[in-house]
Amino acid sequence: MIKNNRQIFFGLVAMLAAAAVIAAGTDLGQTTKQETNWTAIAIFIGFVAVTLLITKWAAARTKTAADFYTAGSGITGFQNGLAIAGDYMSAASFLGISGLVFANGFDGLIFSIGWLVGWPVITFLLAERLRNLGKFTVADVAGYRFDAVPIRSFVALGSLVVVAFYMIAQMVGAGQLIKVLFGLDYAVAVVVVGALMMMYVLFGGMTATTWVQIIKAVLLLVGASFMALAVLWQFNFSPEALFAKAVEVHDSHDKIMAPGGLIKDPISAISVGMALMFGTAGLPHILMRFFTVPNAREARMSVAWATTWIGYFYILTFIIGFGAIVMLIQDPVAYYVDPADLTKGLKGGGNMAAIHLSNAVGGNVFLGFISAVAFATILAVVSGLTLAGAAAVSHDLYAAVFKKGKADSMHELRVSKITTVCLGVLSVVLGITFEHQNVAFMVMLAFAVACSANFPVLFMSILWKDCTTKGAVAGGLVGLISSLALTVLSPTVWEEVLMNAKGSAPFPYSSPAIFSMTSAFIVIWLVSLIDRGAQAAKERAAFPAQFVRSETGIGASEY
Question: Does residue 335 fall inside a structural domain?
């Protein structure tokens, strides 16, 4: 078995090397592919070498299902906080938020605030209960007192939908970023990400994935800090002077300091805020991290540290966005930016603003560093998503639903690894298929589904005594279906993706969360109240407080 694993490991390494050779020696004539950035490639190869060594070390420690899913619950609160930050600070956060600030000014802050304020929800309502009630996955928490088959089937379905949309966005982002900055062809870049992700998860499980996320979080925080300090240094560390100059040079002038430029109506603003805030508390790859710590105290510490790093990071992205406005718009030629590309970037959301700014403040070496870190960011997030998807299939569906809890640990682990390969191949295929699609709606769709389907079920199951299986499944399905349907009918998809006439979208708002999440809660409440069967009575009797004391030994005061 060890010999076979070693052969597979080195086979994947060889495949990566072959992909790099093909990329360096082949030009398919794509006009958007840029000259190869050897500095970025060298830094990226260094990152990959270190993380592969970590994977080799982690493989020796990954023997059981508990090791694979949760690193044997041996991660400290500080380490887990950094890993959560690494999982959460995706390329969408780094490139997307700074790009939104670059293009729209103040309104870009809505997204960073929305993502950040989701953490108090997790801190005060979920983190400790997740650790006390869960074992490997979110379904363990939602289903501890419910009928296993329906609730685990639904939670696994909701998790897989979120993972799929989030992963497509990350894979497409990886392909586009590397095509532009590394000189690789798009398909090759996607294959490289898929192969590396499979190696981390297959051989190292949660241990390797955790350390990849920690390293990436440290690199990203260091790089973003340098960029923000370099920008502020230009203005004697006066944010007021930076904002004043941004107002002067931006096409919209004073409007960039006022809300309303990005989201026009209050319903959309509230709905987007709800999706970002409560969607955070429904992302399976984030919630799964609370099972990697040994106790509830470390779970709380994880959230405290994660909130610290993430809050600091989002402050930096705001400064980086305004710095890009001043330095790039004021004199694009001095920083090797094509003015035509700059105009296009302003209209398209400015996703490459942070990359261009890295060249402006640190030259080609720092540009290479930030490019490699952005790629590593995507790699770490995709690894976490894959592990969450594999756990949903192997632990929730195979072991709990199909085998009725009687699955052998080694068989379950084998199913996890098979699922990892399948998800890796599927993510590569979908990433290549969606190359030319606008994937911004996929990220929002992942958050909309998470807040509409996963969060209400999780929230009600652990905080409301009268919640039942029928109520949780019915409400969750309503939230899942309505969030998907309303997103497709929204202007973002109906008009921009499906190319229908402007103004023809049946659903006029940019996010469905205010309607779909509310509907889910109402249906869970109503169906649970109506459900008065014998099974419902048993479920009400097994409410968390009694369960936690009897099964974990944790007293009411600690709970």
Answer: yes
Q: Distance between CA atoms of 538 and 155, rounded to whole angstroms?
A: 21
pLDDT of residue 434: 77
CA distance 235 to 245: 9
Neighbours of 252 (CB within 10 A): 15
Bin 85: left if φ > 0, else alpha if -120 < ψ < 50, else beta.
Answer: alpha
Q: How remote is the C-alpha of 513 from its chain's centroid?
A: 18
Asked if residue 4 is part of any domain, the answer here is: no
What's the pLDDT at 522?
96
CB-based burial label for 28 (10 Å; 0-12, 13-18, 19+): exposed
Span between the terminal Cα atoms of the chain, in Å: 43
**Apex CA 57: angle with CA 54 and CA 59, to 5°?**
105
Q: Which domain holds residue 244?
A: 37-56+69-449
Distance CA(388)–CA(74), nearest Å, equals 18
Rounded-to-integer distance, Cα 27 and Cα 200, Å: 29
Amino acid present at 73: S
d(Cα 74, Cα 61) in Å, to the nearest integer?
A: 11
Length of the chain as a residue count: 559
| Number of domains present in the structure of the chain | 1
Q: What is the pLDDT of residue 134?
A: 63
pLDDT of residue 34: 54
Contact 431, 194 (CB under 8 A): yes
* Domain at 215, CATH number: 1.20.1730.10
- The pLDDT score that the predictor gives to residue 229 is 93
Rounded distance, CA 158 to CA 282, Å? 9
3-state class of 337 per DSSP?
Answer: coil
Give which of 466, 389, 474 is closest to 165, Cα–Cα.
Answer: 389
CA angle 14–15–21, rounded 5-degree value: 90
Helices (H), 260-336: 266-280, 284-287, 296-324, 330
Q: Note whether residue 480 is domain-resident.
A: no
Report the distance separating Cα 314 and Cα 327, nearest Å.
Answer: 20
Q: How far apart are CA 98 and CA 377, in angstroms?
A: 15
Alpha carbon dihedral 492, 496, 498, 503, in 10-degree steps, equals 80
What pTM does this model have? 0.80
Q: What pLDDT score does 358 carry?
A: 82
Rounded to an integer, what distance in angstroms lies between the CA atom of residue 182 and that of residue 173? 13
The one-character DSSP state at 33 is: P
CB atoms within 10 A of CB 481: 16
**pLDDT score of 339:** 53
- Give the pLDDT confidence score for residue 23 in this predicted structure: 32
Residue 382, C-beta contacts closer than 8 angstroms, at least 6 positions apart: 167, 170, 171, 174, 193, 197, 427
Report, as ranges of residue numbers, the positions in the chain whose pLDDT lies below 50: 1-32, 336, 345-349, 546-559
Q: Tell me if 166 is assigned to some domain.
A: yes
Rounded Cα distance, 84 and 51, in Å: 17
